[in-house]
Sequence to fold (110 residues):
Amino acid sequence: MEQDITVKITDRDGVTHEIQAPTDMAMNLMEVVRSYELAPEGTIGICGGMAMCASCQCYVKSDHELPEMGDDEDAMLAEAFYVEDNSRLGCQIQMTPELDGLEVELAPES
Fold:
């Protein structure tokens, strides 16, 4: 059954967008940001979602339980700029029904 979830994304200009994200298309947060054009073309998902560039780094503002960070994501964030305790790579956050109400802020461009 198709289920969209509501996600609040604050873009790099500080504008918050409340959007509907599909959970039945195997999309991740980075792809959702790109599909809604919430970041300029070529500034997010540069590596294509392989956890190799940190261009989709975001700060998780809500207290959702996210999947554990993998080694690739952990290593990439260790080298990224503007990393905070709540930093995650958007390409590693799959859109699932459990993430309804997720709130994130896109990290500044490095």
Residues 4-106 form a domain with the Ubiquitin-like (UB roll) fold (CATH 3.10.20.30).
